[in-house]
Design a protein that fits this description.
- This protein is mainly α and about 290 residues long.
- Helix content is about 45%, strand content about 5%.
- The strands form 2 sheets. It has a two-stranded antiparallel ribbon with strand order 1-2.
- Helix 6 crosses helix 8 and helix 10 crosses helix 11.
- The longest helix is centred in the N-terminal third of the chain and has 21 residues.
- The radius of gyration is 20 Å and the shape is globular.
Length: about 290
Amino acid sequence: LQVRDLETLDEKSERHFPTFVSLRGDMQEEVVRFFVDLIQQDRSILSLLESDHTFLNGSLADHYGLTPQELGTQSHGTADDWRRFDGLHAAGRGGMLGFAATLAKQSGASRTSPILRGNWISEVVLGERLPRPPKGVPILPDEAPADVTERELIERHSSDAKCASCHQRIDPFGFALEGFDAIGRTRSIDASGHAIDTEATLPDGESIRGLEGLRSYLLTHRRDDFVRQFCRKLLGYALGRSVQLSDKPLIDVMMVKLSENDYRISTAVELIVLSPQFREVRGRDFGLNPE
């Protein structure tokens, strides 16, 4: 999810977000605990998108606007004050799209960035390949002018003919997540006091609104893209190399078997560790004597 180094991220404006430094380690820990649970409980990989639970300590729960009473009545305690919390959808979150870690990492120093967030969903989550930005693209200011909303600032920038084709693909994803500020707190107005607009129209004509609409779109219209990208990433990690064209048949089998087994992560892991790629190639790749 590209949040491995979040706990050392020091690019946020202390003036705008004075609490970030004290919370960044907790933000990363939430993701770690979520993945540990995903693997140990053999959950569906789709829970990365649709999960209604997460793991929080008191500081992060407060950051999310969740009261201690809610945590006490709907969760069970774990070590170090970390607890499982259910009912994230009702709180406007759920899954990796609502992690403070991903929302903060894909934002600027002093404001959100629908471009960064949209690009992350397009390339990291869905596996799309986008061309590099053309040279000479103007850099956006750290803060929107007082008479312009943050969204209008992005839309003006993205209307450049050289940039429009890519931005039409990625910006709508980011606009849907504008209900979260640059460190992942929910918000209804931007830094200049303008009302937040989370409605967006995707290139295929589908309209979405907010995290819930984006999550629904990804699960119904882009599920196969998400699952295939998950398989690519897991296989590449397991093999310690980039996925190659010769790996496509294995990924195709993983896709089929996952759909037949409720997308449980053990299905993908078992297929990988029993594959010739995993069992036979590693010794040669690392220059070891197979005997």
